[in-house]
Amino acid sequence: MLSFLALTVAFATIISTTTAHYTFPNLLYKGTQYPDYTYIRRTWNYQNYYPLFDLTSPVLQCFTNGSFPNPGTLTVSAGDTVGFKVSGRIIHEGPLLFYMAKAGFRQTAASMTGAGAVWVKINETKPVITNVPEELELYKWPYYNAAEVHIQIPPCLSTGDYLLRVEHIALHIAFEEGQHEFFGACAQLKVVNGGNGVPGPYTSFPGAYSSNDPGLFLDIHRNWTLPEEYEVPGPPVWSCGL
Ligand SMILES: [Cu+2]
């Protein structure tokens, strides 16, 4: 009886670990939700939804490992908004980030790897302070519990092929060094009607983050009195200055 109980508890733990995690399998554009891994590279965890912990891994580039089918490339205009549907919901606390990388000479969105200093951060979200008295926490992560996330392609971005990288960093157990959980994916886009923006600074994956970054190694539950000063890891955001 005892062993049956132990087995049941172990099984329940496995189930909750799996269902607690999330991927970004569906692109959303102009009211259409595309099928799984259409225009989005199939991620290493597409079946088990595991978090990535290793900040030194090239898997961090696009959350792919080994080969994956070419998902195709979607044509969008600079300034358009695209989204990612979440498998389930983002049920961990932490920042949401977006990066873009432009295909180099003789590369396309489909052929580029995402290696090297090619990435520019185009958006990041910090926690926000709430003053609602009934809230247990004094702050909220804007994308906590989100079922989809959206990003505007910078209106001044130059025309060309790009990878658009979404990333959510879960910090609920980040009080232990190295216990940040990374989730994300890359969409393959052809950006048309672009502008003359000059993006930067550029960063690389791996390389953008280290395990003792103040935004990756902290206790968000206790002794954290100034969430508005939370430092989102990685380079500063580039925008068109609009
Ligand atoms: Cu987790």
UniProtKB/TrEMBL annotation:
Q: What is its EC number?
A: 1.14.99.56
Q: Which CDD domains match?
A: LPMO_AA9
One Gene Ontology cellular component term attached to this UniProt record is:
extracellular region
- Which catalysed reactions does the entry list for this protein? [(1->4)-beta-D-glucosyl]n+m + reduced acceptor + O2 = 4-dehydro-beta-D-glucosyl-[(1->4)-beta-D-glucosyl]n-1 + [(1->4)-beta-D-glucosyl]m + acceptor + H2O
The protein's UniProt keywords, in alphabetical order, are: Carbohydrate metabolism, Cellulose degradation, Copper, Disulfide bond, Metal-binding, Monooxygenase, Oxidoreductase, Polysaccharide degradation, Secreted, Signal
| Gene Ontology MF terms | metal ion binding; monooxygenase activity
Q: What is its main location?
A: secreted
What residues does the Auxiliary Activity family 9 catalytic domain cover? 21-225
Instruction: Tell me the Gene Ontology biological-process terms attached to this UniProt entry.
Output: cellulose catabolic process
Please state where this protein is localized: Secreted
Q: Which cofactors does this gene product need?
A: Cu(2+)
N-terminal signal peptide: 1-20
Q: Known InterPro entries for this protein?
A: AA9, AA9_LPMO
Query: Mind telling me which PANTHER family this protein's record contains?
Result: ENDO-BETA-1,4-GLUCANASE D, PUTATIVE (AFU_ORTHOLOGUE AFUA_1G12560)-RELATED
Q: Of which family is this protein a member?
A: Belongs to the polysaccharide monooxygenase AA9 family.
Record protein name field: lytic cellulose monooxygenase (C4-dehydrogenating)
Taxonomic classification: Eukaryota, Fungi, Dikarya, Ascomycota, Pezizomycotina
